[in-house]
Amino acid sequence: MTDYYAAAALKKAPTVRAMFDGVAEKYDLFNAVLSLGLDSLWRRCALRALFADLPEGRVLDLGCGSGDLAGALSGRREVLGLDFSGAMLRRARAKFPAPSWAQADALRLPLRAGALAGAMTAFMVRNLADVPLCFREVFRALRPGGRFVILEFSLPRGWLMRRLFLAYLHTAFPLACLLLRGDQGAYEYLRKSIRSFAATVDLVRLLQEAGFIAVHARPLLGGGVVLYEAVKPGA
Ligand SMILES: C[S@@+](CC[C@H](N)C(=O)[O-])C[C@H]1O[C@@H](n2cnc3c(N)ncnc32)[C@H](O)[C@@H]1O
Question: Count of domains in the chain?
Fold first, then answer.
């Protein structure tokens, strides 16, 4: 079994990209099973938060994976789905022809300053080698008044919820892998990255340091998932 987690600590971007390329085919199935179908509910919450007071213009889905968030947006706005995994983007294109799709790194956005009305990202941030750099890039690409919405796993604050959440991570991930014949190394990476990221990174502070205002963090699933909202000042 590949220890992607240890490898990612040394050479994060290429290792993480190779891992997501490897899981792309079964990604949607694992998502639905491991989240017990709640992933679509979380995405709906993210879209509602994005559209609260969103200026006119284009929206970015950063780390779009197999495209569900960008696909849900198309028809309402001009959408760009961006990911560095070619295999994930191929799945996204096959599912949703309408949005534009681009293969690029979230740490170097191929967008001019002020090009976007909004940006959202679901379950990508904890995979980044440099979260502050990504936030500065999103800040640059947004127009004044533009909104940034993030969904990311976290650790519930309450003792009982935290115990239940950790027990779920430890049992459901390997079990789902076994039953669905997934790459155990990849799902071990996902499990470890959720735990270590939540314990060490304060996304509210990093958003504020990048220049965002009106930064809010709303716990979902008792705090196992958090929805962050932030605004670029100066509208
Ligand atoms: C856990 S998946 C989430 C996919 C999708 N947003 C969702 O909610 O299902 C994380 C995605 O982020 C992408 N990703 C991770 N780091 C990235 C980076 N530095 N630049 C672009 N995409 C990245 C991965 O390729 C993967 O498709």
Answer: 1
